[in-house]
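User: What would this chain look like folded?
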Amino acid sequence: MNAGFDRIGLKRFAGTGERLARAVTVASVSFGRSLLWLLAAIIVGCGVWMLLPLSKGNSAQPEKSELASVETSRSDDAPAAVSPVSEALAPAMAELDRLRISSQTWRRGGLGSKALVTFTLRNDNDYAVKDVEIVCAFARRDGSHLTNRSRVLADPVSMKSRKTFARITVGFVNVNADQAKCSLVAARRA
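Assistant: Here's the prediction, encoded as structure tokens.
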């Protein structure tokens, strides 16, 4: 029995498989070459990036606080000469030896460019403190120093208490930063 398919004219489809295979081969060679150029560009780009000098962070250095330069304690043996400016500021100063950071962690935020610090501030003084200034030092994985960032916290901490500051933005941080250590610089009596 013959269904009559020979009369339809299937001969025009006879070479289609070979043409399709040739088109797929040309497309795969073209895709392979494009992929090879992309890989070469990535390798060259990474090589150039590795040769660039390391970033020193933001060029603006944190200013030394006026509060940090004031002498807060006097020795009974040797009276210190204190200027009228520092006498006016001294009563407002808090004793930093009774104020400490008891725990701290940090993570990246803002697409990895900002440092978010979480820490607990412990106040063992007989008075509340406010305007606490902290400085966070960032380092690489090997411990070499990268940059410092400072922040003043306006929230008061009650006397003989502790307060946790969660995810406080300290500032922009170097992409190579792996470790952070925050310390207190100054505080005022509330």
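Residues 56-83 have pLDDT under 50 and may be disordered. If you want, I can go into more detail on any region.
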